[in-house]
Amino acid sequence: METAAYISDENLVLFWPSLIGVMAIALAHLFAPRFRFLHKPDNIWVPMSAGIALAYVFMDIFPHLAKSKANFGYVGVNPIYELLARNIYLVALIGFAVYLGIVLAEMAFRKDPAAREITFREAPVFIKIEYLSLAAYNFLIGYLIAEQVTHRAEPAVLFAIAMAVHFAGLDYLARGHFPKVYDDFMRYASAAAVLAGWVSGVVVEITNASLDIWYSFLAGGIIVIAAVYELPHIHTQRQYWAFVVGAALFSLLILSIGYIGK
């Protein structure tokens, strides 16, 4: 790793959109339960947020990884790093498996009616691991928003929009599962983690190969969280079309800016 030249003359114009984007995600964590539109019986925001998040994975992250895999001449620091760098989609599968295991354990615990009343301190170890992993998930996202300025052509704010919407829906659901854990710990930990990740991304720059490994792991996690937490809340045609609209609009946004294939 080396110190990032993030705030150079050519990157200064992108510094503020990046900071605004990560602040939007932090605010979504802190105030999502207060958004009244999330509490409507026929909630369309959660399906729409899933559509946006999945569109980002399939229309941007995976095409970027495909291009990087074709262009990079990876030099392995060690055999494991070399394996992951040369098999980048394996990392996405690993991310998928890790997050799926954590989420399924949490869902089984949630069947206990008393689970809603637990605090973070009282929670079982695997619940703590889940929420700490979500904080790590946020740290990674904050880091990637900062890193995109030097590694990728697209505006960092594009990624931030997708993640702010994604987390608004996700946090609404998380609070419904464990209100005290969310109110007392998760929203603050997630907001702090995404900001800390952004600061780390400004200060430290990692190699393209390492960044792609992180991106791929994140893609697997986004797919699990959207599929297991958000998509099951589609019960009506209106909610289904909200998912379609979210995915379509964000896909069109990515295509219109012209980053796919560059």
Protein architecture, described:
It contains 9 helices and 2 strands; from the N terminus they run E-H-H-H-H-H-H-H-E-H-H. It is mainly alpha-helical and 262 residues long. It has one domain. A two-stranded antiparallel sheet has the order 1-2. Helix 1 (9-31) packs antiparallel against helix 5 and helix 2 (45-71) runs antiparallel to helix 8. The longest helix has 27 residues, at 45-71. The two termini are 26 Å apart.
Mean pLDDT: 79
Report the portion of residues in β strands: under 5%
Which word captures the global form?
globular
Q: In terms of per-residue confidence, which ranges show pLDDT below 50 for 5 or more consecutive residues? A: 1-5
Number of domains: 1
Radius of gyration: 18 Å
State the helical fraction: over 70%
So how many helices? 9
Can you summarize the main beta sheet? 2 strands, antiparallel
Terminal-residue CA separation: 26 Å
Structural class: mainly alpha
Order of helices and strands: EHHHHHHHEHH
How are the strands of the largest sheet arranged? 1-2
**Can you count the beta strands?**
2
What secondary-structure arrangement, pairings included, does this model have?
Blueprint: E1 2-3, H1 9-31, H2 45-71, H3 79-86, H4 88-109, H5 125-151, H6 156-177, H7 179-203, E2 204-205, H8 208-230, H9 237-257
Antiparallel strand pairs: 1-2
Helix pairs in contact: 1-5, 1-6, 1-7, 2-6, 2-8, 2-9, 3-4, 4-5, 4-8, 5-6, 5-7, 5-8, 6-7, 6-8
